[in-house]
């Protein structure tokens, strides 16, 4: 059993836009933190880089090779192998697929909001070193979900 203990995200949530494109408008993650998070994302076992399956072509997406990804259909975006993407630097947020209980935790703790029309969760970009670790833990739950390790 994988647990996720999320601290409450400090301060008010950022302004967002959407549903298409769905993203973050302020409290933007510093570019070095965005890049660090991206490097971590792309280094996960079984992950490959490919274009996103959503109408935000500047987003950088990670997909999971079939032999690694045995999660349920809703662990992937639009019947693809994509389970997460990071928006461009002027936004810095991420979308990822998460199990319903994790989505609820993320929303209640103020780390993100559900996408209004897709099965993904918008997770706000990390504003500092502490927050990158929290966002990373949330991303690892998306990875575990896509791998079929949690439901």
TrEMBL record:
InterPro entries: Luciferase, Luciferase_dom. It holds the Pfam family Luciferase. It comes from the Bacteria. Residues 1-23 are annotated as: Disordered. Residues 81-139 form the Luciferase domain. This is Luciferase domain-containing protein. It comes from Streptomyces stramineus.
